[in-house]
């Protein structure tokens, strides 16, 4: 008796369930999965269901199974896609930053060579104190000048650099 009842319900409601599931899931394979799950559940509960509200039970559970399917599908498909997209964006950001750093380094080398051509002493002071963080006191002693005089020379070198090359650097 149970098998005949189930077969009759399957014949009566299969297309309806498939149609409702497809409207929600928007994927034929997914709608078939929902339909299969619904009829498995119906087979398990067929003895405890009343005849009258069976259509309402089928529609309500089709809706719920379809929503569950979408949630599972989202977790399985969308999250890895989002992670992959984030990874790609991080790689692109890293490559862009690496290119920018390389461009900055090339610009720094160009400017330092221009500074060397303009004034070799300024070049040496900027290279040693500003770029390599040597002690101003030690460098001042080597040059036989005061630390204040040394800082004045570095200040003049920076002013010259800003005057001639700052407009190029701010674009980097």
Protein described:
It is a single chain. The protein has 172 residues and is mostly helical. The chain has two domains: 2-85, RNA polymerase sigma factor, region 2, helix turn helix motif (Rna Polymerase Sigma Factor, Chain: A, Orthogonal Bundle); 93-169, Arc Repressor Mutant, subunit A (Orthogonal Bundle), CATH 1.10.10. It is built from six helices and no strands. It has helices at residues 2-25, 28-45, 54-118, 120-131, 136-143, 147-169. Helix 1 (2-25) runs parallel beside helix 3, helix 3 packs across helix 6 (147-169) and helix 5 (136-143) crosses helix 6. The N and C termini lie far apart (81 Å). The mean pLDDT is 81.
Quick description:
The chain has 172 residues and is an all-alpha fold. It has six helices and no strands.
General form: rod-shaped
Low-confidence stretches: none
N-to-C terminal Cα separation, in Å?
Answer: 81 Å
> How large is the count of helical segments?
6
Essential attributes:
172 residues, mainly alpha, Rna Polymerase Sigma Factor, Chain: A, 2 domains, Arc Repressor Mutant, subunit A, 6 helices, rod-shaped, 87% helix
Secondary structure layout plus pairing:
Layout: H1 2-25, H2 28-45, H3 54-118, H4 120-131, H5 136-143, H6 147-169
